Amino acid sequence: MPSAQFESPCATIFSRRNLRFVTVVPLAILALAGAAQISRAQGADAKFRQATEALRAGNLDEAAEGFSTIVKASPAFAEAHLNLGLVREEQGRNDEAIASFQKALSIKPRLRGANLFLGIAEYRLNNLDRASDALGKETNYYPADANALMWLGVVELAKAHPEAASVALDKAAKLDPANVDILYHRGRAHLLISKTSYEQMFKADPNSWRVHQVLAQADAESDRHADAIAEYELAIKLAPQQPGLHEELGTESRNAGQIEAADVHYRAELKIDPNNISARYKLGTLQVERGRPEEAITLIEAALQQNPAIPDAHYYLGRAQMQLGNDEASIASFKRVLSEKSEDPDIAQQAYYQLAIVYRRLHRMDEARTALAQFEKLKQQAGEHQQQLYEKKRQGQNANVEESPQQP
Q1: Contact yes or no for 33/117 (Cβ under 8 A)
Q2: Which residues pair with 11 in a beta bridge?
Q3: What's the CA gap between 403 and 407, in Å, rounded?
Q4: What angle do CA 155, 67, 117 make, to 5 degrees?
Q5: Cα 139 from Cα 155, distance rounded (Å)
Q6: For site-directed labelling of 218, which of 7, 74, 111, 282 has its Cα 20 to 30 A away?
Q7: What is the pLDDT averaged over residues 219-239?
């Protein structure tokens, strides 16, 4: 059975059933879109087809027996060595798997998938340098293989090389942007890079205003607004003229319900940086909340002159115009918001609600009812979406409890 008669297009035959990770890095159980080489040439040996089908079906003992028989009869058949390696890897016999992958590569050095699964087997045995060498070859030979790039990133993470991991995982994410496993590892790599950077910053100057800014941002992301405010205040004490700090403090003050303080800090920011569009716009929307429509319109329109693409700005203009009694102008503003299809579903809901109020005030009752119906429709859709998210999260939590992986 000479190996020359076998061609080797790719197919996925690697099961996720026993795919476990042995590393200090917490990793998910992944389904590999592997590159097992299957013979499909005309007149392909029946034993090879039978062994391959056994591997696909998860009948590992039958597959191992079949491929072992084949490689004994035809030791130069690289694809059979690869498939035998896949069986051994699935059985947890990684040393034997490595030997089969190496044999396959000695016959066909660029055999697709061989270096990928060799790298995985070496990784499982904690031979991280050998794993990265094998995976590096696979990614060099097949640079569009997102799976191989992901595994290279996983190994580099295990080696405590987050920068190198991020390079591989960024490439993988571009090739397969919807792969949640790639996104998970990529996010972890960048998180570790950020953590290292911040640790170095703290060591370099623990009293730097930047340290307090980072702590404030972390508190803000966790909705600890009082703590964030305290850290921003310390940062401003150390760097009172630093652009951006007063704006961030103003936003946290606003989130904490401290409207007067937010007003003060947004104005302080504009004194330091008169060209800060974001601070000017935020100050304008704050004036809408404070019932100061004239100043609100002046500020928001000035911000729009600097950047006409500010999202949802016309909603707040419409609110301010309503407060002034400029009903037709407010209708035009709300309609513009709706025509722009805001990414914030709450804005669209509120625009219809405000339209209903204005139309009712103008005794345009049919239009008022239509706008209110649209508001109710969007509100119901938002509620259904939230319920779906809740159910999906609950089901995921239940699945994690029921299918938690065994500890290696």
Answers
A1: no
A2: 36
A3: 12
A4: 10
A5: 13
A6: 282
A7: 93
> Which range of residues forms the domain containing residue 359?
311-393
Contact predicate 313/300, CB 8 Å: yes
User: Under a CB-based contact definition with an 8 Å cutoff, are residues 250 and 266 in contact?
Assistant: yes
CB 316 within 8 A of CB 296: yes
Which residue bears the tokens 């397969």? 176
The reply to whether 193 and 331 lie within a common domain is no
Q: Name the residue among 274, 285, 214, 275 with its Cα closest to residue 251.
A: 285
325 — phi, psi (to 5°)?
85, 15
Task: Assess if residue 52 is contained within a domain.
Answer: yes
Task: Locate 193 and state its tokens.
Answer: 């890079």
Residue indicated by tokens 């339209």: 355
Number of domains in the chain: 2
In one letter, which amino acid is 347?
A: I
Question: DSSP letters of 236-270?
Answer: HHH-TT-TTHHHHHHHHHHHTT-HHHHHHHHHHHH
Closest-CA residue to 153 (of 27, 313, 334, 309)? 27
Give the phi and the psi of residue 10 in degrees, each rounded to 5.
-80, 150
Rounded CA separation 132/151 (Å): 9
CA–CA separation, 170 and 295 (whole Å): 46
- The total number of residues written for the chain in this structure: 408
Instruction: Tell me the three state secondary structure of residue 363.
Output: coil
Amino acid occupying residue 191: L
Read off the pLDDT of residues 36-90 as tens digits, 9 standing for 90 and up: 333 433 334 677 888 888 888 888 888 888 888 888 888 898 988 998 998 998 8
In contact, 128 and 155? CB cutoff 8 Å: yes
Residue 360 falls inside a structural domain:
yes
**What's the pTM value of the predicted model, to 2 decimals?**
0.62
Which tokens is 169 given?
């995982």
